[in-house]
Design a protein that fits this description.
The chain has one domain (6-697): Maltoporin, Chain A (Beta Barrel). 9% of the residues lie in helices and 55% in strands. The chain contains 8 helices and 43 strands. The strands form 8 sheets. It has a 22-stranded antiparallel beta barrel. Strands 3-8-9-6-7 form a 5-stranded mixed beta sheet. It has a 3-stranded antiparallel beta sheet with strand order 15-17-16, with no helix packed on it. The longest helix is centred in the N-terminal third of the chain and has 18 residues, at 6-23.
Length: 698
């Protein structure tokens, strides 16, 4: 798409909108509000920082909230794409169905330092401590908000909440009554649709049921050719809530899903006969990956007063993955009790207990298998947490909290936190926090053998790195210092600034070993790496066996800035910018493999990222929105800095019918966002796309 006319187009739209609004007052419900009322509407209460409701302005953490209105006006169709709005959150597509998502460093396909929850349900995979983003979904219209904490949240939420917490919170069933139909189609969004119905039962009960499905086209390679990484998914679910007594309420909800992806993996088939789909020598590609699963959760809460309540949550989650690399199945049961009580007028105490167990089954393949001949594994997690918010006076609040856990990998872990908040005025807040957090080892890091990953896709000679799990791994540890400032100016401008310094110890790294997967010995290659002695150069590949150790220490520091400006009652601008610096060094004897790890850790995250979002409410219920985002170069992935533009034009008819056209990634026909050779993924490029959508609520 030719973008030379875009500045003129945007300026024309702004001028035309201002002229028309000066002459028309069609949206009376909007224009009756003052700027002060408008900006106040955009500051929601949050619950993720302290596990209780509090004003965002009062929160002693770097928290950002994506509202339901943000989701609708941005035109995003998935949770990962929505996270691009968050300052400091680096979201990059490896292909049409796979993302690398992290904040404050360590961004790659197996990013494992974020804890993600959907309505209190933890969705990280014990296989690699990360998230299968392609199965985390719901109706976007039913998401109330996404609260994102940048920085440690482990004191309340537990291990793996190291660099942040993403909490997806859906609307109450009482707020989704009636019917909603949404459907659309486009170039990459080939077809999608959703239906939701909400109703009442009994005197106090509400429910909703929904179903959705989509089919998305694949991305392209550097020459613009289709890479066949298409994706389809079907999902259905429900949510119901009712009062059990005058002071108690119950919520039950669940989901079922199934779908197929075609990740463009590049695996070396050493048998040359396992699959017929072989190209580029012995490279396997173009095979499907089927996934299905479901969850069921129950939540009960009793509220004795505004300052005293307790709750209990029980969740069951099932996930099944049928992959030619590894077939896996896991069942997770999660229980949690929480008690909140305010005493002596100055202490807000929250404490709780938790238990989680996961049964994990693996069907071994030539590419991945559990060590020691096992095909199943059970893990358990026992936890307790406590937090005390102490009000020192009208301006100062001091918070102490900690979480105590026992897990199946490293035993006992303690993760303390201390926060101090100073509010010299009602609209100005300064805060600081000192935290410790851990990332416990995963099944793939401790008990899995991985073979067949090629680390040089362009060379005629393939280098393959078999990775053997290490059961002696320790937890990765973080000590973090944060300082923040936020203020609301003149009822129309809000500023939020955070600076941080993180010190990591015992980061897991690759190191070469002297034993090949088949048990044979190795021989040195130029004293750099050890090659398997059974390697036959005539076959065109070399094996470099490796294992994992706690081999790196890392330091990260940076700054994040968020600014919201209600320029006019019909026009809002949002801006955020983040700067990140990452330094890594070996904490053991320096080897070539560890030097590679330094580069991976330091250069897989962008140093600078930025977002500008504009939303305009024009006359006659027309809406025009655009979103410009920038990501600095990724040195290790050999990807230059890139800027993308999304645009949305919408028209509402009455109260319930809306038609919109959305363009995404409009600055270039296609561009690469991420590439990490150790993932085994072939490089693909995100392409320019358009789709049209109709949404009818009645």
């Amino acid at each position: 798409m030719n973008t030379k006319f875009l500045p003129t187009l945007l300026a024309s739209c702004i001028f035309a909108g201002s002229q028309a609004i000066a002459e028309s007052q069609e949206d009376e419900d909007l224009f009756e509000l003052s700027l002060e009322e408008l900006i106040s509407m955009e500051i929601p209460d949050v619950t993720s920082v302290s596990r209780k409701k509090q004003r965002l302005m009062d929160s002693a953490a770097a928290i950002y909230v994506i509202t339901n209105e943000d989701l609708r006006r941005s035109g995003v169709t998935s949770i990962p794409e929505a996270l691009r709005m968050v300052p400091g959150m680096q979201v990059a597509k490896l292909n049409a169905n796979t993302w690398s998502i992290s904040t404050r460093g360590f961004n790659y396909i197996f990013a494992n330092k974020l804890l993600v929850l959907i309505d209190g349900r933890t969705v990280y995979s014990p296989l690699f401590s990360g998230v299968n983003w392609d199965v985390q979904d719901t109706m976007m219209e039913d998401i109330d908000r996404i609260e994102v904490i940048r920085g440690p949240g482990a004191a309340l939420w537990g291990a793996n909440a190291v660099n942040g917490v993403i909490n997806v919170i859906t609307k109450k069933a009482a707020d989704t009554q009636g019917n909603l139909i949404s459907a659309g189609a486009g170039t990459q969004e080939k077809a999608f649709g959703a239906y939701r119905h909400g109703g009442e039962f009994g005197e106090t009960g509400f429910y909703r049921v929904y179903a959705k499905a989509f089919e998305r086209d694949g991305q392209v390679d550097a020459e613009g050719k289709d890479t066949s990484d298409d994706w389809n998914m079907r999902r259905a679910g429900f949510k119901s809530e009712w009062k059990t007594t005058s002071d108690s309420e119950m919520t039950i909800q669940g989901d079922l899903y199934e779908g197929t992806t075609r990740p463009p993996l590049r695996l070396l088939d050493q048998s040359q006969a396992l699959f017929p789909q072989l190209t580029n020598g012995f490279i396997v590609e173009g095979l499907s990956r089927d996934q299905r699963g479901g969850n069921l959760g129950a939540y009960w809460k009793r509220t004795l007063s505004e300052t005293h309540d307790f709750s209990f949550r029980a969740i069951y989650d099932n996930y099944q993955n049928f992959d030619y690399r590894i077939a896996e199945k896991r069942d997770t049961v999660d229980f949690e009790f929480q008690h909140y009580y305010q005493f002596w007028g100055k202490h807000d105490l929250v404490w709780g207990l938790g238990y989680r167990t996961t049964w994990y089954e693996v069907e071994n393949t030539p590419y991945m298998f559990l060590l020691e001949g096992k095909d199943s594994k059970k893990t358990e997690l026992f936890s307790a947490f406590i937090q005390d918010d102490i009000t020192l006076n009208d301006q100062w609040t001091f918070t102490l909290s900690s979480r105590f856990e026992h897990n199946s990998f490293t035993g006992y872990e303690v993760q303390p936190n201390a926060r101090l908040t100073w509010k010299p005025t009602e609209n100005r807040t300064f805060w600081t926090a000192l935290s410790q957090a851990v990332k416990t080892p995963s099944i793939s890091e401790t008990a899995l053998q991985t073979d067949g990953i090629t680390i040089d896709d362009t060379s005629p000679v393939k280098y393959v790195i078999p990775i053997k799990g290490n059961p002696d791994l320790k937890s990765e540890k973080l000590t973090a210092l944060e300082v923040g400032y936020r203020e609301q100016f003149s009822n129309s401008f809000r500023l939020d600034i955070t600076a941080f310094y993180n010190q990591y110890e015992d980061i897991i790294a690759y190191v070469d070993i002297n034993q090949c997967p088949n048990g044979s010995s190795t021989f040195p290659l130029l004293s750099l790496q050890n090659l398997c002695s059974n390697t036959d150069p005539s076959l065109g590949f070399f094996e470099i066996p490796a294992t994992l150790i706690n081999g790196l220490d890392v330091r990260t520091y940076g700054m994040e800035v968020v600014a919201d400006w209600q320029a006019k009652d019909w026009w809002k601008l949002q801006f955020n910018y983040s700067w990140l610096q990452v330094d890594a060094w070996p904490n053991k004897e320096r080897t070539s493999i560890l030097r590679v790890n330094e580069v991976i850790v330091e250069d897989l995250s962008a140093s600078h990222t930025a977002n500008i979002r504009s939303t305009m409410n024009l006359p006659n219920q027309w809406y025009f929105d655009f979103w410009v985002r920038y990501m600095d170069n990724l040195k290790n992935a050999n990807i230059g800095a890139n800027t993308s533009l999304d645009m949305r034009v919408a028209k509402k008819f009455g109260d319930g019918l809306e038609f919109s056209i959305v363009g995404q990634n409009l600055f270039r026909n296609h561009h690469r966002e991420f590439y990490e050779p150790l993932s085994g993924m072939a490089p693909t490029e995100t392409r320019e796309s358009w789709y049209a959508q109709i949404r009818w609520q009645f």
